[in-house]
Write a structure and sequence with these properties.
The protein is an alpha+beta fold. It contains two helices and four strands; from the N terminus they run αβαβββ.
């Protein structure tokens, strides 16, 4: 008695189910999300002179997009918005995953 070959569609469906189960296992993994408004360079003296109310000038203009990092890798650009009296970021552009941008 010879066994009939398993149809390719069945093989693909089983593989897809396994992939979904593997992805489900990762869905609750915590990630570090950070949003960068801008950067600047300061000397140690300038840093020590900071007091409450000091203003630190950044390298971006008001209204420029902010960078959104996931685990220190650039994921997106967005704009700062206010939602229920809290700051939030609206994603305006997803960065190509081939882009090797990283915070640093």
């Amino acid at each position: 008695m010879t066994e009939a070959p398993i149809p390719q569609a069945v093989v693909a469906a089983v593989a897809e189910t396994k992939n979904q189960a593997n992805i489900e296992m990762l869905m609750e993994v915590p990630l570090k999300i950070s949003v960068e408004l801008g950067r600047t360079r300061m000397s140690l003296r300038q840093t020590l002179d900071l007091v409450q109310g000091s203003v630190i000038e950044l390298d971006r203009l008001a209204g420029d997009p902010v960078d959104v990092f996931v685990n220190d890798r650039l994921l997106a650009k967005g704009e700062v918005v206010v939602v229920d009296d809290k700051f939030a970021v609206r994603i305006t552009e997803l960065i190509d995953p081939q882009n090797k941008g990283s915070k640093g």
